[in-house]
Amino acid sequence: MSSPFILRVGLLAAVVGGAAGAARAQVQERVYPPATAAAGDSTEDKQQFANPSVLGMGPSKGLIVRYERMPRFGVSSSAQVQGLNDFSTEATKNARLSIKGYIPAWNHPHLKVIVGLSYEREEFQFAQLPTSYELYDNIENKGLKSTAAQIAIIRPVDAVHWYLARVKGELSGDYTSDELTKSDYSRFTAEAIYGWKRSPNFSWGVGFQYGYTFGRLSIYPALVYNRTFNSRWGVEALAPARITLRYNVNPSSILYAGYTVDGYNYIVNLSRAPLTRKNADGSPDLSKATLSTLELRETEVKFRLRWERELLSFLWLGAEGGYRYNYAFDAFDRTNADREKIIDSQLNGAPYASLELFITPPRKLLEKSGVRR
Predict the structure, then answer these.
(1) Distance (Å, rounded) from C-alpha 71 to C-alpha 264?
(2) pLDDT tens digit string along 186-227?
């Protein structure tokens, strides 16, 4: 399960004085501090160091709790192998809950290490129970989960150049404590970026991402482009996965508009309704083992509007809404060596809404570290 981590890391990198996170983003008042060496550091460390963050970016997020929900929408599936049927129904529920936390494990001007832990859960419910269709019966109200740990390293080279690298390991699927098998559900993703900080208002970089953003495991180029144009407007991008236009309403309120591409990859245990490959005449295909698991690849594009508002000095609210376009919801054979696509599904487009609470470094802590909010 991929989400564009570089933008969040860029925000966490904004505080270089030692606070547990990054400064809140107001172009009008926020001071973008150069790196300051702690007492006892060598003269070599007492220089400015670049990072991906720019003035005006939103508050960093130490702990995030988010809930997302979509209304009823149509679902249709087309069999890609012999012996299976096509099927259509409606999803009465598609919801996601995510809890994420980020901790700066090492925070020096010339090296920052951030550790992240996350838990995400997606649920489906369908109009007919049971649906009599193997794929839907096996994910009905089951809980498709992702539990992950990741580490990000930001290595400023000098006042202009920076590196960023991230590795992430996760367990993704419908596992329970009894069924969990690491070799079946484990996933690994990574990314690396080399960037340039042209000014406090402009930072960009190029690199690659290796992960499931577009459904299947693949490597693809990535472009970071963070720029603040004036006291109100800016853009934050990790293309092609995300491009966001930012509008700073005031020091306590920020609006965003743009799109994101999200990819999810789950291993689904077919314990509720086994799926047997068949010949053209309907007889079991004895050359293929009965499927015990499927790999479910889900890719969606969201066109979104988002509002972030400060509630307390350390607590912010995020409200988001928009339209979800489903690009793929396909199931692949994970039992036989051919890894064929078994079912090609399409989830109809639908509006969505989400609420999020996230914790930022308290105002007093940031002021003590030399950052004015």
Answers:
(1) 20
(2) 889 999 999 999 999 999 999 999 988 777 788 999 999 999
Q: Give the Cβ contact number of residue 95 at 10 Å.
A: 15
Radius of gyration of the chain (CA): 23
Q: What is the pTM of this model?
A: 0.82
Q: Are 262 and 240 in contact (CB under 8 A)?
A: no
Q: How many other CB atoms are found less than 10 A from the CB of residue 55?
A: 23
| Structural domains in the chain, sorted by start | 5-368 (2.40.160)
Cβ-based neighbours of 143, under 8 Å, separated by 6 or more? 121, 122, 123, 174
d(CA 152, CA 148): 13
